[in-house]
Specification:
This protein is an alpha+beta fold and about 450 residues long. The protein folds into four domains: about 55 residues, Dna Ligase, domain 1, CATH 3.30.1490; about 45 residues; about 140 residues, Immunoglobulin-like (Sandwich), CATH 2.60.40; about 150 residues. It contains ten helices and eleven strands. A four-stranded antiparallel beta sheet has the order 2-1-3-4. Strands 8-7-10-11 form a four-stranded antiparallel beta sheet, with no helix packed on it. A hairpin with a 2-residue loop joins strand 1 and strand 2. The longest helix has about 45 residues. The chain is elongated and about 120 Å long. The two termini are about 50 Å apart.
């Protein structure tokens, strides 16, 4: 299978592309020999001129070739004559007043270029590790550059992040770091619920690779290309799930990952975390108006969901009490067909009462398509409590069937009974916390409860 290449030129990363596509970019001058390339079999990024496989064959080189009969000696004579002509031309130019003016103007132009380059940070200390990013302020560029100048061995891992075009529908996150070449990072964007338009929660991840002490995300948009929901986001930079061996050996010397934060994967080091407001191109006043309308809709929907959940939990508790009442009564009778028949009669009536509730909660089984809900995690817990209640009722029925012995199932029945009680108790406690924290005008209570 043909290897796929990633290339990095002047702050932009591209890939995976084929070998022929790399050669085509070299021919067009899009890539230069001093740019970088990497593929899976390589431990780190290298300059293209250092990778034999990427070198252009003679037949692929651009530009005229020397005639077949040309000799080294004739080339040397021709070069000597050309240098002599250039010295004479320079001497004549220096003797002409008009040409001296042109030389002065050229020198002034070159000086101006160097001055602009200095102001952009290209000639300041650290410019070789992190040149200035166009479109960012001097302060933002300095923040990025400072991270690359820290000694990893003395000051630990440093990752600076600056958001470019934050008010647009396609913002970009610029990163600078003192971590090794080829380090894999993962950017997690987690929406702050009450600030999101038309969403209760939202998160998305973007992987990036460190090249020349920098990295840049693609435009921060949805997977389908749509703009992210407007609102505030916590942006976290974590180490990637896998690393090159050479990079991993360096990361292993850093302090271990701490306690994972809510919603973030465990066992990963967190290098940076900031909060940004992404308005997806909206004006501040438009966003404020739409957010107020969004809160009104969620408040109305949350009130309906809260009532449904309270009713369903009450029904689950009733069915829980009834199945153990019948079981405790019948288990005292002698085992046999009579006891079995009484249980089946009870079970038929119990199922008739449970079926409507099962139909409602079936929409919240894992993997089922569902509409947006405000209290989704509570519906998931209610479905789990329903499944556990069905399980304990099935165990009771098995224990009632001859020649089964109730005693042989007693331990499992009691264990499942405790699970149902715990799950229903947890739901009741959360519903009570929501009720106590409810405000008729504010955002419905959710954070810290679910």
């Amino acid at each position: 299978m043909e290897r796929r290449w990633f290339v990095h030129a002047r702050g932009n990363q591209e890939g995976p592309i084929t070998l022929s596509e790399v050669h085509e970019r070299l021919n067009r001058g899009v890539l230069l020999s001093q740019d970088f390339a990497w593929c899976e079999s390589m431990e780190t990024w290298k300059r293209i001129q250092e990778i034999p496989e990427l070198q252009l064959l003679p037949s692929e080189e651009v530009g005229p070739r020397a005639p077949a009969g040309a000799s080294v000696a004739s080339d040397s004579v021709r070069l000597t004559d050309e240098l002599t002509d250039r010295r004479e031309h320079a001497r004549q130019a220096a003797s002409s007043p008009k040409r001296r003016v042109r030389w002065a103007m050229g020198a002034a132009f070159i000086a101006t270029v160097f001055l602009v380059a200095y102001q952009l940070g290209w000639l300041k200390p650290g410019w070789g590790r992190f040149p200035a990013v166009m479109g960012l302020s001097d302060a933002e560029n300095q923040t990025l550059r400072a991270a690359t100048e820290k000694k990893l061995s003395k000051e630990g891992a440093q990752v600076a992040a600056v958001l470019g075009n934050p008010g647009s529908a396609s913002p970009v996150l610029h990163l600078a770091t003192n971590l090794p070449e080829g380090t894999q990072l993962e950017i997690w964007l987690q929406g702050i619920g009450p600030t999101l338009l038309n969403e209760v929660e939202f998160s998305i991840q973007f992987p990036v690779t460190v090249v020349q002490h920098s990295a840049k995300t693609p435009a921060l948009r949805m997977r389908d290309g749509a703009a992210l929901p407007a609102g505030q986001y916590t942006v976290t930079v974590l180490e990637g799930p896998s690393q090159l061996p050479s990079v991993q050996s360096v990361l292993d010397q850093l302090p271990a990952a701490g306690v994972p934060q809510t919603g973030l994967p465990a066992g990963r080091r967190v290098f940076s975390q900031q909060t940004y407001t992404l308005l997806a191109g909206l004006r501040d006043e438009t966003y404020t108006t739409l957010l107020r309308e969004s809160h009104t809709r969620w408040r109305e929907q949350a009130a309906l969901e809260l009532k449904d959940l309270q009713d369903w939990v009450a029904q689950l508790e009733q069915r829980f009490a009834s199945t153990f009442s019948a079981f405790d009564k019948l288990k005292e009778q002698p085992a046999g067909d009579s006891r079995r028949k009484q249980w089946l009669d009870f079970r038929k009536e119990w199922d008739m009462q449970m079926d409507p509730l099962r139909a409602k909660l079936d929409a919240f089984r894992p993997g089922a398509p569902r509409a947006k809900v405000f209290y989704g995690p509570l519906f998931d817990r209610a479905y789990l409590a329903l499944q556990t209640l069905n399980r304990v009722n099935d165990l009771q029925g098995t224990a009632m069937s001859p020649p089964a012995d109730v005693g042989s199932y007693w331990t499992e029945i009691e264990s499942t009974r405790s699970q149902v009680k715990d799950r229903l108790g947890d739901l009741q406690a959360k519903l009570q916390a929501i009720t106590e924290g409810w405000s008729q005008s504010g955002y419905p209570p959710r954070e810290g409860i679910l």
